[in-house]
Design a protein that fits this description.
- This protein has 156 residues and is α+β, with helices and mostly antiparallel strands.
- It has two domains: 96 residues, no CATH class; 49 residues.
- The chain is 22% helix and 36% strand.
- Strands 1, 2, 3, 4 and 5 form a five-stranded mixed beta sheet that branches.
- The longest helix has 17 residues.
């Protein structure tokens, strides 16, 4: 199979990620955006050891869903650096702002899902973005809990 890839400028608009290439041809309804982390190595998040005590520990490829682009599902394949602290021995991966590492999606997709759930069913929202319906429900429940906890203005 002959796969065409398209070199791109930074189409993601996410701080800490730069787009390497875009694959629109592997699947008819999905676009893959290959990106790499541009974050500087920092201090250890576990023991606050100086960055001089932090060494590289390989790379990690994370997959994150994003909002649709021209009616196609978008998956960001992020090449992130792994680090190891020589003081405490723990390892970690770059935490890129704008990506929800636990849920595997961008924050803008979470915002979009929260808004779409008011006008469409959870199942249709999930189908549109290629994610599980339970994930859509969890995102909306987090949104509703945050709204519930926010202060409400008193009416006169």
């Amino acid at each position: 199979m002959n796969i065409r890839t398209y070199p791109q400028q930074d189409i993601l608009g996410l701080k800490g990620l730069v787009t390497d290439r875009v694959d629109r041809d592997s699947f008819p309804d999905e676009t893959f955006v290959y990106a790499r982390s541009t974050l500087e190595r920092g201090s250890c998040p576990h023991c606050n050891a100086d960055r001089n005590l932090v060494i590289g520990h390989g790379r990690d490829e994370g997959r994150f869903k994003d909002v649709t682009l021209h009616g196609r599902k978008v998956t960001i394949i992020a090449d992130r650096a792994r680090h190891r602290c020589t003081r405490c021995g723990r390892t970690w991966t770059d935490q890129i702002p704008g990506l929800r590492h636990r849920s595997g999606m961008t924050m803008r997709l979470e915002d979009h899902i929260s808004e779409r759930c008011f006008v469409d069913s959870f199942m249709n929202v999930a189908r549109t973005h290629g994610i599980d319906e339970g994930t859509v429900r969890n995102v909306f429940e987090r949104y509703a809990a945050a709204k519930e906890a926010s202060p409400r203005p008193r009416t006169p």
